[in-house]
Amino acid sequence: MTNVGELARGVLAGDRRSIARAITLAENDSAEAQKLIAAIYPHTGRAHIIGLTGPGGAGKSTLADKLVREYRKKGKTVGVVAVDPSSPFTGGAFLGDRIRMQELSTDVGVFIRSMASRNYAGGIAKATKDAVKILDAAGKDIVLVETVGAGQSEVEVIKVAQTVVVIHAPGLGDEIQAIKAGIMEIADVFVVNKADRENANKTVMDIQSILQLSSGGSWKPPVLKTVALTGDGVSELVDKLEEHRLFLEKDSENRMRLLKAKAEAELTEAIKERVLGSIMENLKKEGKLGEYLQKILKREKDPFSAAEELLKEKGLE
Amino acid sequence: MPSEKKIRVLIAKPGLDSHDRGAKVVARALRDAGMEVIYTGLRQTPEQIAETALQEDVDVIGLSILSGAHKTLFPRIMELLKEKGLNDVMVFAGGIIPEEDVSGMKKLGIREIFGPGTTTETIIEYVFDHVSK
């Protein structure tokens, strides 16, 4: 049995083994993980949480590596959560983001954790939020969350990150692609990586023209150019990220609104999970679930009516 | 709803050997068997491997080596794992490790050596049977 109190103390002291084991606990979703998060939650809220998302092949991992190095030069400690997709068929995953960052493994100021999505939709894993909290509570100044190579609808990262960086590369899609809702809307900073390629400037212009069309808020997302392989443009990127962090801090009205929305979303999800979990467990125990499944299979009842009846029986409607 | 516990495996290539086809084959096979496999690429130092195992909280480490440097690298890796308190991690190795070196490696704590010709099924089965959970 894990001693949650001890583990929490280890996390707060920044002990790497404790951080690692705490994240594993969060991934396996035991009731123990809840206790752990409860213990460390008061110590979260200090880190700058940055989400890195964008289509596969744009260079997220390579850029993440360079970003970490730049932050380390500035004396900041960094946590990285790199998410890769789980196979919907086998449940397994090949977690290869770390390959691009391996030199950083032995830097004590950096903690890198690879995470499988475990088929959670939206580009991150269910436990990603908890992993971020753990790294935050452990004292990391910056927490980078690298999402699954995203298409246009993997936008869950906005629920975790304060600053979202959308990374593109020339040739991964034309202007029309850029207009599609979702990923283009969530960016606080746009990066065109592989900017040494011929059509890089066109990609920058494409994104800028889309941005001109949208009604802005008070933060105008900049479009930066980087060459992650060489590190070109990374220092400017870090400056922009810092600028955004300061902007968030100053714009307290907006910030409060966002924080409230995040808190509400998390609370709602937590309530949903508990309620659903206990109802389903109950139904299974009483054998009601099997009974209604049979009715659905025999087409005697449709799923919605079945749900209505079941909940009415339990006095929940 | 609780997420299923997964076996986390680190596939590592210590030293200067640049042939990773075998390591990748094993990595993919373990993934297809439902495990979460972290592959860290070529030319890993013992320090990098041990620290990765700690941060990733892996259950299993598979060391792949074809350069013959196992007698130098493996003891260092096992020593570092012990130093970091990773005593529960199951370590196996594969690649080119001569028969006469196998017992020496096992004495270090490496549970099994899978030489050329081993089927991925054998490795998968071994991991499922011997991982400490």
Please give the structural blueprint:
The complex is a heterodimer of chains A (317) and B (133).
Chain A: H1 4-12, H2 16-27, H3 31-40, E1 48-53, H4 60-73, E2 78-84, E3 93-95, E4 110-116, H5 128-137, E5 142-146, H6 157-160, E6 163-168, H7 175-179, E7 189-192, H8 200-213, E8 223-225, H9 234-250, H10 252-286, H11 288-297, H12 303-313
Parallel strand pairs in A: 1-5, 1-6, 2-4, 2-5, 6-7, 7-8
Helix pairs in contact in A: 1-2, 1-3, 2-3, 2-5, 4-9
Chain B: E1 8-12, H1 21-32, E2 36-39, H2 46-56, E3 60-65, H3 70-83, E4 90-95, H4 99-108, E5 112-114, H5 120-130
Parallel strand pairs in B: 1-2, 1-3, 3-4, 4-5
Helix pairs in contact in B: 1-5, 2-3
Question: Count the helices of chain B. How many?
Answer: 5
> How would you classify the quaternary structure?
heterodimer
Overall number of strands of chain B: 5
CATH superfamily of the largest domain in chain A: P-loop containing nucleotide triphosphate hydrolases
Main sheet makeup of chain B = 5 strands, parallel
Global shape of chain B = globular
| Topology-level CATH name of the largest domain in chain A | Rossmann fold
Unreliable stretches of chain A: none
Q: Biggest sheet of chain A, strands in spatial order?
A: 4-2-5-1-6-7-8
Structural class of chain A: alpha/beta
Largest interface: A-B, 37 and 33 residues
- CATH class designation of the largest domain in chain A: Alpha Beta
Fill in the CATH topology of chain B. Answer: Rossmann fold
**Head-to-tail CA distance between termini of chain B:** 21 Å
Strand order of the largest sheet of chain B: 2-1-3-4-5
What is the percentage of strand-forming residues of chain B? 15-25%
Helix vs. strand class of chain B: alpha/beta
Q: Over all CA atoms, what is the radius of gyration of chain A?
A: 22 Å
List keywords for this structure.
heterodimer; A: about 325 residues; alpha/beta; Rossmann fold; seven-stranded parallel β-sheet; 12 helices; about 15% strand; B: about 130 residues; five-stranded parallel β-sheet; 5 helices; about 20% strand
